[in-house]
Fold:
Amino acid sequence: MKKAIESLDIDCMNKFSSDISYVIAETKEKFGDEFINENRGRPLFLILFQNLQNILPDKFIELIVNKVKDESSKSSFPFKFHIFNEKDRLYLGVSPQNENGYNELPNIDSIIGNFYHQYIKHKKLYFEFGVGRTQCNYISEIDEILSELFISANQNLIDNLKRWNWTFFNKTHDFFANDEANAVIQPVIFYDYQRETFSLKGGEVFIGGDAYSSYSELLSHIPEDKDINRVELLILEKLISACRNSPGLLKMNITPQSLIDTFYSREKVRKFIELIEKNKLNTKNIRLEIVEKPYEEDKITLKEVCEYFHNFGITFAADDFGVKNQSHQIVLELGRVIKEFKLDPISFKFKVEEDHTKFLDNLAFIEYCKRLADNREAIITAEAVEDYETLSFLLTHQIHYFQTNILCKKITIENYNKSYHHMQNLPEKIVRHILTDEKLLEEYSDYESVFKLAKSKELI
Structure:
C-alpha cells in the first residue's frame, strides 16, 4: 500500500470530469497553503485514508470525489478537493467554494462511512479512514489549523478501527456537517416600563442544539486531553458564522483562561473582528459572557485582553454574578467593559413571611447590583425565571431583562431571525393573562413563546 500511495498518478487524476475542481500538493507546506490559507472563513474537512487494498490510489480518489459530489448534489455548493499523500497515508481535503448557508453542507462523515460499509460489505476493496474538520479561521496560523486537522482525523481513524462512531470533535462541530440548525439561542426579553410591553432583544447562543442544554454541560463533556482554549475558539467562530445577518444582541460564553490564552495580542482580536464583519454582524451587538472559572495571568492580564475587545465595540457580561464568587471580583476589576450582570433569581423566591432575613438580603443585593449597573451603564439580566411570581417580584424591583423559558424557549437561529421583528411590544396584561391561566399554560408547551401563543389565540 505504501508503494501504491507513493505512485499517485497525476495524469490519471486529470481524467476527472471537468466540473470537479482539485489540487494535488507535492509538499505538506504547499498543501497547507492551498487548503488552509486560500479558504479562510470556510469550514474544511480533512479525510485521512490508510491501508488501501485491492484498488489503485488514483481510482480510489476518483471514487471518493465522485461520491462526495453526488451526495452533495442536493445543495448548491461547488467543492474543491485538495490531495496530498505522505508515506503510507493519503489525505483528501474538501472545501466548499461558497461562503453562505453553511448549514446546507453535506455530512462528510456519513458519506464516507456509508461508502466504507458499502464496499466492505461486498468485499470489493478495503481501507481505513478518519475525518477531521474545522472552521478555517482567521485567528490561528496555518500550521496550527493543519496540525489540528491531522490530529483529529487521526483520532477519528483510531476510533473507527474500534467502531464507526463520532469522536468528540465530530459531535461538537456537528451543526456544520448536516442540514439541521444545531445552533440555538435562548432569547432575552426586555420589559419596557413606560410602554408596559415585552419585546425580544437578543439572546444567548449555544452550540450543539439539543445535544447540550447549556454551555457548562458542553464544557464538562470536553475530555481532559483536549485543548479547551482551541475548542472554545472554534465554538465562538462557528457561532459567529451561524448567526450571520442576525439582529439583536448576541451573547456567547467563554472562559477567562481561553480569553487570555487565545487573544493575547491585538492582532488576534482584529482577526476575530474581521470574522464578525464578514458575517454581516455589528460588533456592538456581540457580547462575550465570562464564565466563572479559575484563571492565571502570565504575559497579559484579563483586563488587557478585554480592553482589546472593548476598543472594537465588543462588551462583556459576568455570568451568574454574585457577591461571594469570582465573577464579582471580575466585575470590580474589569470595570467599564462589563455591560451586563446575569443573575440567577432562584434565591429571590424567599418570601418575607418565610425568611425575613433572606428576603431583606435579596432586596439589598438587587439594589447593590442596580447601583453597579448604573455606574457602568450596564444592564441586569435575570436567568432561569420559571414562574410568574418570581417574574412579578423582579418587575416590581425594576429588573428589565429576562432569559426565561416561561417567556420564550430555546429556538433555532433560523427561527430566531424569522421571528425577531414579530416578537415585539407584547402588552404586559396579555403576558400576565397567559402566565396565570392554567389552561393556557398547559397549551404553552406546544409553542416557542408567549408571543406565538398570544397570536395563535388571537389575544393581540
